[in-house]
Amino acid sequence: MTTRLSWSSRRTEVSGLTRLALPPTVVATLGCDAVGVPARFGFRLLRRLPRNGCVFADADWWWWIVPTGSDQELTWPLPSHYAPGAFVPAAEPRLIRWPDDQSPYTPPIPLYLAACQLTGTAPLWRVDLGGRGRGRSFR
């Protein structure tokens, strides 16, 4: 399914969520999900990352665009929120940070580690050992 994106966010009628829409000058070849943190962490997280893609914000939350599936094998720390499809529980998020190039993505692993550090949470990810479909958690 292909969705045309504009750079103004759009509220969906069914779910009450807002889809973060990218500027037309960036290319989202890997799909789009978003990771949000409460606004009180926004500037600190922004400064800790080696690269920031598109970042959206409203009064309560800041949202980073990551490639689709960036939640696989990771347990994102509370109070962060992982939003598949970049559908977020925000009324009017605005694009506050443009990427330096044409990629909208913030690298998810540095984002994850910085979010863990800011929230005082030890990183936790699941690893599938032996192909049995059961993950094992490592801390």
**Strand residue percentage:** 25-35%
Number of helical regions: 2
Basic shape: globular
Low-confidence segments? 1-8, 132-139
Helix proportion range: 10-25%
Mean of all residue-level pLDDT scores: 84
Helix-strand pattern, N to C? EEEHEEEEEHEE
Sheet with most strands: strand arrangement: 6-3-5-4-8
Q: What gyration radius follows from the Cα positions, in whole Å?
A: 15 Å
Structural class computed from helices and strand pairing: alpha+beta
Q: In total, how many beta strands?
A: 10
Distance between the termini: 37 Å
Q: Report the biggest beta sheet as strand number plus sense, adding barrel if it closes.
A: 5 strands, antiparallel
What do you see in this structure?
With 139 residues, the chain is α+β, with helices and mostly antiparallel strands. It is 16% helix and 26% strand. It has a five-stranded antiparallel β-sheet. Strands 1-2-7 form a three-stranded antiparallel β-sheet, with no helix packed on it. The chain has a two-stranded antiparallel ribbon with strand order 9-10. Residues 1-8 and 132-139 have low confidence and may be disordered.
